[in-house]
Design a protein that fits this description.
Length: 272
């Protein structure tokens, strides 16, 4: 089995947990397992991303080999599928996880867990709590979602459309979680603790206006009104230089509220 590139389990069966929000990992009875063969990782990741849906042979070939598949590529894919099935097989499991369905294969997750599903559940919870004006619960959900991110899918960027598509979607989802967490913590009056983090976020995402807004609120509530107004000037200059745009309506209204010495966040509703 060593030639397949698998690092084998020592567990005795039961439910598995698959993790693709970073280097691919499989957990079985507390034992964490990885796959050493890169093409096998890509195959499993592509099937997990589309779990419950048929992925065609052509899609899998494109994901694994791109525009330069080898000769007898269909036979090579069948070999990888066979090896993957052996890797995932558990005594007494009763049914395979990788199911053949024309024109390709389907991953039947069943009662097993996938961290991507957990992520979507936590984000939905965070959005719901935010709408219900429950900032403590929203912060807990968004932080738990962020804790699931361990790096790029499979540990490094991939060119295949299935994995790269997920990677782009996850970038947006992670950004939403950060913004939702900052919103919730501001609602909990944790403005002083957030200033350093928000300064870093503005530097990391210079075109994301929500982080400028949140930083302005945190500074203003910390008695640093001049600095809050300076953040607006920085945002305006950055948006003008990079995009030729003026700040959005919310950012302009926030500047006006700070100039008027109003509490710019007192009535804000956390709606994602």
């Amino acid at each position: 089995m060593a030639s397949t590139g698998f690092y084998l389990f020592s567990g005795n069966g039961g439910e598995l947990r698959f993790e693709i929000l970073g280097p691919l990992r499989v957990h079985d009875n507390g034992v964490c397992t990885s796959i050493g063969a890169r093409k096998m990782e890509i195959l499993l990741a592509a099937l997990l991303i589309r779990a419950g849906h048929v992925v065609s042979c052509g899609q899998l070939i494109g994901e694994i080999w791109g525009q330069h598949p080898p000769r007898r590529v269909t036979a090579a894919l069948h070999v990888y599928i066979s090896q993957l099935r052996k890797f995932l097989d558990r005594p007494g499991s009763g049914r395979p996880l990788v199911v053949t369905q024309i024109p390709g294969y389907l991953f039947d997750l069943g009662e097993h867990e996938l961290d991507l599903d957990t992520l979507h559940t936590l984000v939905a919870d965070g959005r719901r709590y935010a709408r219900q004006l429950l900032p403590e619960q929203a912060a807990t959900a968004f932080q738990a979602a962020l804790d699931l991110f361990r790096g790029p899918v499979l540990g490094e960027p991939q060119d295949g459309p299935i994995i790269s598509g997920l990677s782009h979607a996850l970038d947006e989802l992670r950004l939403e979680c950060i913004e939702g967490l900052m919103d919730a913590r501001l609602k909990l009056r944790q403005h002083r603790e957030l200033i350093g983090r928000l300064n870093s976020l503005v530097f990391e995402y210079p075109l994301h206006e929500a982080f400028y807004e949140q930083l302005m609120v945190a500074l203003y509530r910390s008695g640093r009104r001049a600095e809050a107004l300076n953040v607006y000037r920085t945002a305006r200059a950055t948006l003008n230089d990079e995009l030729g745009l003026e700040p959005c309506h919310d950012l302009r209204k926030l500047q006006e509220a700070i100039l008027d010495s109003a509490d710019p966040y007192a009535e804000r509703v956390l709606v994602m």
